[in-house]
Amino acid sequence: MSFTSVEQSRERSCERSRWGDVYLVAGSRAVSVCGDFLAATTLALVLAERGHGGLAVSGLMLAASLPLALLAPITGRVADRVDSRVILTVVPTLQAVVCLVLAFTSHPVAIIGLVALLACGLAFTQPVLGALLPEMVRPADLPKASGLSQTAGNIGMLVAPALAGVLVGQTGSQLPLLIDAASYLALVGAALLVRTRRRAHPSSRGALVPWRLRDDRTLTVMVGVLAATIAAVSAIGVIEVFFIRDTLGASTTVFGIVAAAWTGGMLLGNVLFSRVPPRLITVPALLLVVIGSCVPVLVAAAVPGPYWILPLWIAGGVCNGGMNVFIMVIVSGRTPAAARGRAFATLSAAVQGAGMAGLLAAGPLVDRFDARLLFALVGAFGLVTAICGLAVVRREPPSDPVTSTSRPPRDSVAA
Fold it and tell me: Quick one: 99 and 132 in the same domain?
């Protein structure tokens, strides 16, 4: 089946987009992401204030990321086998219970273990939400829907750290964690109200529709470049503290403003790139946007003062926001509908694994090398990787990106 015929079949099967479902999912995503980041910031502050040190905080960050990488082979298959409404009601309910227990737990080992359980739940819900969004809208509307979802998540990320600081300072750690528990229940409510559902679509032999990432070389290159870029960005998250505060001599207030500039740029990028026509959203176009996110990091290594980083971080954030929008459209377009749970779980595993690698590498590097040099090396690494990936995919011959029906029958989509 050609890509054109896939697009036409999707258009016929979904005459109009279900924007009510998109807004429900986006709103619940904003609340859920805010709750997750609120809890993570709160627990990091609590562990630091109680004198448990950097090892405990690192363990907390590892516990929040590792399950998403390790469980991808399981969670992707579950997402493609089990009714999406079942997953999005049962798993967040269990997460809410875990969060309630977490609110009354003080031992650092128990806290890290409970955070790992929360991350296990996230490993199940993330691929479901990723695969569900393309079922809600026509292909022509997917960039806009993806932009709305990403914007909602970025708003949650932007609000959570400041809210955590205020709440922990004024009320202690319990209230933020109870709010996080309520955010999971908000996701349950949204799942019950959303009309769009994904049900299992096995092959004629009763097994899952076959899909492997390595069967699509172009998509494999894209995921590899994204993983390398995420590793670099994660390392920058550690290095920039020393570069901006020590090397450039910025105050804590200026550091906070600079750090928020990237997220602010992502919000802008979500809006701008959501208006790009789907026919222009290709893997080479995505890699060009990745290059655009790496160039500001490389240039930042040469700035004389912290305020010079502000426009660079906004520009990098804009490209980062565009990357998120493009990824949703590309993965949805190159993956059969019945395999999208596995596709998004695989992507999440690559991203989370790369992010952990970047964090683990940054710590020892900061102790041994100048922060300005590390900025330049990390920016150059991301840039060279993206350029090499672009060179590879441009040599790829035109291929059929989807090898099976792109969308299940109408009666299997609506509730």
Answer: yes
End-to-end distance of the chain based on CA atoms, in angstroms? 28
Identify residue 267 by its one-letter amino acid code. L
For 219, the token pair is 């998509």
Tell whether 413 is covered by a domain.
no
pLDDT digit string, tens, across residues 155-167 = 887 777 777 777 8
* Segment 87-133, tens digit of pLDDT: 999 999 999 999 999 888 888 888 889 989 988 988 899 889 888 88
CATH number at residue 94: 1.20.1250.20
Residues 263 and 169 in one domain: no
Structure tokens at 410: 């109408």
Look-up of token digits 């894209």? 222
Total domains present in the chain: 2
What is the phi/psi pair of residue 370, to 5°?
-65, 140
Supply φ then ψ for residue 275, to 5 degrees. Answer: -95, 0
Please give the residue range of the domain that contains residue 120. Answer: 18-200
What single DSSP character describes residue 397?
P
Among residues 35, 16, 356, the alpha carbon closest in space to that of 179 is found at 35
Two structure tokens written together for 183: 């955010």
For residue 278, the 8-state DSSP code is G
User: Distances in Å between the alpha carbon of 163 and those of 35, 166, 175, 197?
Assistant: 10, 5, 11, 33
Place of tokens 């258009």: 11
Contact 244, 309 (CB under 8 A): yes
